Amino acid sequence: MRAARRVLVVGVVALASGVIACSGNGAEVTTFEPVRGEPMAPYVANAWTELPASPLGDWPLYNWVWLADGSGFVQAGGASVDGAGNITNTRGAAFFSFAERRYTTLPDLPVTSGLGVAGGAWVGDTLVIVGQDCPPMPDESSGALEFCRSGGMGAKVLLTLERSGTSWTSHTLPEWLDEFDYGTPSVIGIRSRRVILASGHEPAHLGEFDPVAGDWTRLPDAPGAPRPAAIEPRATETTVAPSTLAATTTSIAVEGSGPPPVDPYVPPAQVCLNGDRLVAWILGQPTFEPDRFGPPAVNQWYLLDGDAWTTLAAPLGGAVAGAACAGSGVFVTRYLADMTTDLSFVDLIAGTSRVVSTTSVGVLSNGPQYGLAVPVGDADNRLAVATPDGVIPVTDDSWFGAYVGRYFVRPGDTVSDGAEQETRRPSMILEGPDV
Hints:
By secondary structure, this protein is mostly beta strands. The protein folds into two domains: about 5-220, no CATH class; about 235-430, no CATH class. The chain contains one helix and 39 strands. The chain has one helix at about 140-150, and strands at about 5-10, 20, 30, 50, 65, 70-80, 85-95, 100-105, 115, 120-125, 125-135, 155-160, 170, 185-190, 195-200, 205-210, 215-220, 235-240, 245-250, 270-275, 275-285, 285-290, 290-295, 300-305, 310, 320-325, 330-335, 340-345, 350-355, 360-365, 370, 375-380, 385, 390-395, 400-405, 405-410, 415-420, 420-425, 430. The strands form ten sheets. Strands 1, 5, 6, 7, 8, 9, 10, 11, 12 and 13 form a ten-stranded mixed sheet that branches. Strands 4-39-36-35-31 form a five-stranded mixed sheet, with no helix packed on it. The longest helix is centred in the middle third of the chain and has 8 residues, at about 140-150.
């Protein structure tokens, strides 16, 4: 039997160190030898630990690429600064493995100077990355690097790298996926060795990329309506049928109000991969009733069944406040009569739900999340994870940047102490509960 290949897909702007040699026919051949760093000390349960120094230099603003398979992250592009304050950009890249607790350098990225907000995944022995190529700027500065890291005005790129490869392969994004928007296309997850991506359109265009064959499959667009070109104020009233959660919003014509009113803006659908099925939901703001919140004016749930989205019954009654995606299902918060919240786990595919916490908790969405659980915080701002079986406390410090697999990561940054004094805070990692 042929051994399975692992693929990592990443979208970044980086340049790894390599050696240029000449082949017999005079063509240039790039060779690359990865450098594997020393493993950091073992993780300490429920405690933050400083990450090793990045092989890309001492600059804190790297392009962080969170990997949807939960294996780690890639730093793709960054900079270093000397004692005189001179900044040098790098297109280098490195992969940090949660399991090995160390960095491994990757080949230089075929981009101009750095990659903005990006996502990726290992698919077998292939790494896939999708993001924005940030072009060089006239005067590189901390602000310019921050802009690049946060999604600059560069072209969309999709790159793949074999685990033992010496260079990246660039792939063309299909036109239906190439929409300029902050941090898109975004990585939804991995299904059947294909990476699922969502564009920045409203509704989002969805597709699957096969990193081995290098081909695309377009999926049905996410549910919803196109964003209106303009929003005109209008008076509305919302009524809720007593036996259902279906809400009806009725327009009220206002005499002399000018052009015909435009329908109120409906937020875009959130698309989530549960197991190997795609689900989605559209939630508006909860309605307000005297001294309490009521059901949201928009409360729609969907399951992708073949080539079409099927509308599902609302999984919960009451004043749904929000929903968060996990690989195991969807976690839904609701406002209670006393204005606190509870938290429920919803399996949209099975059509079941159950309350996992009756205390006031809030889902934390500080950054990307790829795992079977979701980060939550309690009234005292303590960090925990919500699982289908309940809430597990983690630590008193709830500040983090991403939750990937079972790991919380907090990228380093620089904070001002006033009077031109700055303090650099190192990058940290915390191993959460195994769920």
